[in-house]
Amino acid sequence: MTILFVGRSTFDLGYVCANYPEEDAKHSATHFWAGAGGCALNAAVTARALGSEVKLLTLLGTGPFADAVRTELAQYDVPFEDFATDTEVLPVSSIIVVPGNASRTIVDQQPPQALKCEPDIDALLAEATLVLTDGWLPALVIPLCRGAREQGIPVVLDGGSVKPWSAELMPLIDYAVVSNRFQPEFSFEVHHHYHFAMTRGAGPISWYDGYGGGSITPPQVEAVDTLGAGDVFHGAFCHYLAKWPDFPDALEKAAVVAAESCRHYGARAWIGSFGVD
């Protein structure tokens, strides 16, 4: 069975700096990387690296950056379906990471999210055991999550930010795993999210499952790059949840993987140092 990851792909240009640049100045980086990124994509690569069967549903389009992303997905054995029209729609992000602050700043753009065709929901869900959405691509993700609900396939939300269509999406979510920056104008209880967790970077993860809740302390590591750690967390969470639906256990194991990723530059270097479970 397959975990579907639905949402955003990007091409990232990352710069590690001792501090943030001043306005109207040149600034030297101590480390640089370039490669595929995006919430859903990074999560899919993570789950695949841990041993899950996955498929990425996204927009790539045409052009050299999209070609580079396709090459990287092939390298990590991540199958995908591209719903983009034949245009250059892939966002390119410039990212500054300051390890001393354990922070990053991202500059990107939001291109049009038009789909090239009407998605065949039944076909997409035919072998799915779990769906993750990052909230992007509403024309695809809302009907897909509605179909998953009708078929009894659980849906995980990577809630990084509230979108204009979040109120329509939220009733279709079974596991809401959000950051502390995700501040919806509605109550999770109203939408009956009996599996809810909030991450706080290196701080404790709070969770609630309808019967009770608790707090999980992530492993403390010397972080050199926090970029993509949330995406890694969500991908690992889906991997462990699909193996055994124990909500706090999946959260705790995902926190270990995400912490390991912070010890390396970029969102992939951790893979070689982490055993498949």
From TrEMBL:
It comes from the Bacteria. Keywords: Kinase, Transferase. Residues 4-139, 193-269 form the Carbohydrate kinase PfkB domain. One of its GO terms (molecular function) is kinase activity. Gene3D superfamilies: 3.40.1190.20. It holds the Pfam family PfkB. This is Sugar kinase. The lineage of its organism: Bacteria, Pseudomonadati, Pseudomonadota, Alphaproteobacteria, Sphingomonadales.
